[in-house]
Write a structure and sequence with these properties.
Structural class of chain B: alpha/beta
CATH architecture of the largest domain in chain B: 3-Layer(aba) Sandwich
CATH class of chain A: Mainly Alpha
Largest sheet of chain A: none
CATH class of the largest domain in chain B: Alpha Beta
Number of domains of chain B: 2
Shape of chain A: globular
Oligomer: heterodimer
Radius of gyration of chain A: 25 Å
Number of domains of chain A: 1
CATH topology of the largest domain in chain B: D-Maltodextrin-Binding Protein, domain 2
Order of helices and strands of chain A: HHHHHHHHHHHHHHHHHHHHHHH
Largest sheet of chain B: 11 strands, mixed
Helix content of chain B: 25-40%
Helix content of chain A: over 70%
Shape of chain B: elongated
Number of strands of chain B: 11
Order of helices and strands of chain B: HEHEHEHEEHEHHEHEHEEHHEHH
CATH superfamily of chain A: MetI-like
Structural class of chain A: mainly alpha
Number of helices of chain A: 23
């Protein structure tokens, strides 16, 4: 029991007051922008006739496949993410920052662009297949990628590994080496130290990562639709088809309800399982825990991990910049010849309104729109995430109920929520703040999960020591709390930034045509034929990748005034 | 002094009651994402009518219609453009439009006036046809299929990619063309044979055209794709280096193309009825109709409009496009798609 909960009378009242104040902002945000629209659309479209046995059977079967592919994807993501997190947390090697930023880039790439990249690498006429066919003299492509379950799993790992890396790396790099050293001095060898000391301490961030990755995969839409193809249907894909293609809102709402109930059940299960241990060890500066490879085994590990990560994260996306600078016009009768000729035409074409379209927006403007929305989302998510994380850092009975509620928007149907927004907000839908609000709904669980361990690890003793030396609450917060929380805040800001940059579904629903973001601009180019359109889409995608990489690198290197590393 | 003040006060009140010089009226037009227009054309309308037009783009046709139906009681816009003939019956039964018997209707051929109540007025049409890669067919000495039945021949095994009718508008259009040709349930036998002949099905047009089609810049594996009759013209118009000929062409045999007609309507409950009517007249007028082809790659319903050169050279209009009545489509859409899914995807 947390110290504040024992004690009666005025202590109890001030405790509840403080708790209430912390939860007020995040909860009212969720109430207004999640619960209200969701309940309204469900109430509007559900009726008793929809709850037939046949519909429920189909819903449960779809739920089964959705859970299956999400669980499998999560396990594979952990298998890729854990070694990567160890790599980044423990070792220093040339290109570390760049590789670290590159693993985060996929997270905000629109699916249509990722699908193009994977196809360029693994499609029937992709590099891998062409190389294999040439070297072994095969007549048909040996690798079948698109349209298989494998494609879905690989794409999920590609997208979500960064979640595992960020959450686990943060915890790992802040771990006090004294614990591992103590275990060593008691005779444990390296594997035993990992298994008995380090992994248990990583349990909380690992579980948090599993939760977020699972929910992302559970509500995955673009990947299933584009890379899995029509043979695979998850709940979200079915909801999309029923609602927006068949205009069958009752069935769509039934599926959304099934999805939401499962998410509630799953997050309650998570809350019960996750042990929030307050690791009150003296936190270390991240840098001091990193070193060069010392033994041959470590060197092999670094080399191997860097190779795998580069191949997995960089290769598929190489196609986009390459295509944005090569001649892409389909010339008649010239199919097999490699189109020689580099060109910057597609980049310069971006700045020309060739058709004098009323909706033309120069790429600088689209980039500025994206960055503005991202900035607003970061501020909003931090403003709402800090109080929630602070409350969750000292969890009590109230937190056990409210924690799953915070997670809900991640596991809820984006399409249904979008329709709920339409029904609830009407003309307010095109207000500029709606887009960052929608982005914040998705980013909030990430921000909270990133901040909460840091806030939980704040050493009480240090604060008390500062107070006993005469520091005011603000001063002790500035000198003790802030340096510890700073890293987590930057990491959380990075999450919110990338989520906002890549968000497409909600943005396409809420944005005005005069303020497109970069993903929307990419989609616009890809909706018409022609080499110039395809090339410009590739150019915009490359710009988005560059923007994200630079943005992440900047956030990670940010040195805020007054917070010295110790 | 007091009398003077009272008099000037009364005069002030009187001037307040006098008609004010009007600022521009605002008009909101809700469209689907594919709407495009030249800015000078829209500005000309704005200046001629002292108006400010703003657009709300609302996703594809289905999503936009959904939005309009959900906000029926408090409409987000004054005019809605983007209902097509596959969604027409649905839009009319939802009662989102108010009737407007525009004088421009007299110029439009009967075949496009699918709504006799004049709530939805036709604006443009386009044909969904199979596009083929000319270079591939020449290289492999293949003859272009002339009828739908030819597509099941072994010579075309694994060469066709189509979109899922449940999630794609051209995919649905192609399915409807086969239903018109083979009848219900005859079409299912045809699709079963296509499936056995290696048919590729993907989610939507972007994937089919840019990932699977060999004739596009994506350099995919299939030389035949279900796309639009105007796509070959777009390939020429959107090439960065000038092309001598379009790399693709459409297959326009009987019943091989499906005709899509798009409509505009005034949303019920609009506060700017007269301006909305003027905008509808403007959309049916010569200037906008002539602007549409190069912007949206559709054909104008008003006859005798000058088309761009590329359209005339590279885009073909089928002589016998497949069409089904909007009511029949609305009645059977769900069951047709379900039957198709069972025949092809399972």
């Amino acid at each position: 029991m947390a110290p504040e909960q024992s004690g009666a009378g005025p202590h109890r009242a001030s405790f509840w007051l403080r708790r209430g104040a912390l939860w007020l902002l995040p909860l009212s945000f969720l109430a207004a922008f999640f619960f209200l629209p969701f309940i309204r659309i469900l109430a509007f479209s559900l009726d008793a006739a929809t709850l037939s046995a046949a519909n429920l059977r189909v819903a449960l079967a779809t739920l089964g496949f959705t859970v299956y592919q999400a669980a499998l994807s999560t396990l594979l993501t952990l298998a890729m993410g854990l070694p990567a997190a160890v790599l980044f947390a423990r070792f220093r090697f040339p290109g570390r920052s760049l590789l670290h930023a590159l693993t985060a880039v996929p997270f905000m790439l629109p699916t249509v662009v990722v699908a193009a990249g994977f196809n360029a690498l693994l499609g029937p006429r992709g590099w891998a297949n062409l190389a294999l066919m040439r070297s072994f003299g095969l007549s048909s492509p040996p690798i079948a990628f698109v349209g298989t379950l494998g494609a879905i799993l690989v794409a999920h790992v590609f997208y979500n590994t960064t979640i595992v890396i960020r959450l686990v790396e943060g915890a790992l790099s802040g771990l006090d080496p004294k614990l591992a050293q103590a275990a060593r001095s008691l005779g444990a060898d390296a594997p035993r130290v990992w298994w008995r000391v380090i992994l248990p301490l990583l349990r909380a961030p690992l579980l948090a990562a599993m939760l977020l990755v699972f929910l992302f995969d559970f509500t995955s839409f673009g990947v299933i639709l584009l890379l899995g193809g029509p043979s695979f249907a998850t709940l979200e894909v079915q909801i999309y088809i029923e609602a927006l293609s068949l205009l069958n809102l009752p069935v769509a709402s039934l599926l959304a309800l099934v999805q939401l109930l499962f998410t509630i059940g799953f997050s309650v299960l998570y809350t019960r399982t996750a042990v929030r241990s307050r690791i009150q060890t003296a936190p270390r500066a991240a840098q001091s825990n990193r070193r060069r490879a010392a033994t041959r085994v470590e060197w092999l590990f670094i080399a191997g991990a860097v190779l795998v990560l580069s191949a997995f994260f960089v290769l598929p996306m190489l196609a986009l910049p390459l295509r944005s600078i090569s001649r892409l016009d389909a010339d008649r009768g010239d199919r097999t010849a490699v189109q020689a000729g580099l060109t910057t035409d597609y980049y310069s074409e971006l700045f020309i309104n060739r058709r004098n379209s009323i909706f033309y927006v120069p790429p600088i403007q689209a980039a500025a729109n994206s960055l503005t929305y991202a900035g607003a989302s970061v501020l909003l998510s931090l403003a709402l995430g800090f109080p929630a994380a602070a409350a969750l850092a000292k969890p009590g009975r109230l937190e056990k109920i409210l924690d799953p509620i915070l997670i809900l928007p991640l596991g809820a149907s984006a399409v249904t929520l979008g329709l709920g927004f339409i029904v609830t907000f009407g003309r307010w839908l095109v207000h500029p703040w709606m887009v960052p609000l929608a982005h914040t709904l998705v980013a909030l669980p990430f921000v909270v999960r990133t901040l909460q361990p840091a806030l939980a690890s704040l050493p009480e003793r240090l604060r008390q020591a500062a107070a006993s030396l005469g520091a005011s609450p603000f001063r002790s917060w500035q000198a003790v709390d802030w340096p510890i929380v700073r890293r987590a805040t930057l990491s959380a800001a990075g999450f919110a930034f990338t989520i906002s940059l890549g968000e497409f579904g909600a943005t396409s629903l809420l944005t005005r045509p005069e303020y497109p973001t970069i993903p929307i601009a990419i989609y616009r180019f890809l909706s018409q034929p022609g080499g110039a359109n395809y090339g410009q889409a590739m150019a915009m995608a490359t710009l988005l990748m560059a923007l994200t990489t630079i943005g992440i690198l900047m956030i990670e290197r940010l040195r805020l005034p007054g917070a010295a590393e110790f | 002094m007091q009398r003077f003040l009272a008099l000037s006060f009364v005069l002030l009140l009187l001037t307040a009651c006098a008609p004010q010089p009007t600022g521009p009226q605002s008009l909101t037009v809700m469209t689907h994402d594919s709407f495009a227009a030249t800015d000078s054309v829209i500005h000309a309308f704005e200046q001629a009518n002292n108006a400010k037009v703003s657009f709300i783009k609302s996703g594809d046709a289905g999503a936009a219609l959904n939005k309009a139906i959900l906000t029926k009681s408090a409409p987000l816009a004054d005019v809605f453009y983007g209902v097509d003939n596959t969604f027409l019956a649905r839009a009319l039964s939802a009662g989102i439009f108010e009737a407007y018997d525009s004088p421009a209707l007299s110029m439009i051929p009967r075949e496009f006036q699918l709504d006799s109540t004049d709530q939805a007025l036709p604006v443009d049409y386009g044909d969904v046809c199979i596009n083929y890669d000319k270079g591939y067919f020449a290289e492999h000495n293949l003859t272009v299929p002339a009828r739908l039945e030819d597509l099941t021949q072994p010579a075309y095994k694994r060469l066709l990619v189509t979109e899922n009718p449940a999630s794609s508008s051209p995919g649905l259009a192609f399915l409807l063309a086969t239903i018109k040709h083979f009848g219900d349930p005859g079409y299912l036998g045809f699709w079963g044979e296509l499936h056995r002949n290696g048919l590729q099905v993907v989610d939507g047009w972007e994937t089919a055209y840019y990932t699977n089609f060999s004739g596009s810049s994506g350099r995919g594996a299939q030389p035949m794709v279900v796309s639009y009759a105007t796509s070959p013209a777009a390939e020429v118009m959107f090439a960065t280096a000038p092309l001598q000929d379009s790399p693709t062409a459409s297959i326009i045999g009987p019943d091989m193309c499906f005709r899509q007609v798009e409509f505009v309507g005034i949303l019920k409950g609009t506060a700017h009825r007269s301006l909305a009517r003027k905008f509808v007249d403007f959309m049916l007028g010569a200037e906008f109709q002539a602007d549409m082809p190069a912007q949206m790659f559709v054909y104008p319903v008003v006859p005798a409009i000058t088309l761009p050169d590329a359209f005339i050279k590279y885009s073909q209009i089928p002589s016998q496009p497949a069409m089904l009545s909007p009511d029949e489509i609305a009645r059977n859409r769900d069951s047709w798609i379900e039957a198709w899914t069972n025949a092809v995807l399972h």
